[in-house]
# Entry
Amino acid sequence: MPIIVNVDVMLAKRKMQSKELAEILGITPANLSILKTGKAKGIRFETLEAICKALDCQPGDVLEYISE
# Structure
């Protein structure tokens, strides 16, 4: 898949655990895991905005496009 989700990278940079981010976002750790592993079919802008706010980053820090 050419879209790479870098939530793990941003979590490490911010020294935050997945469980903590899931609580801030109001989603289950399982749903966050689906997003982090790239198995999600899509992401709502509302969720992306909440991730960026919680991790103090830009959408480009979380999502990356790599051509195949």
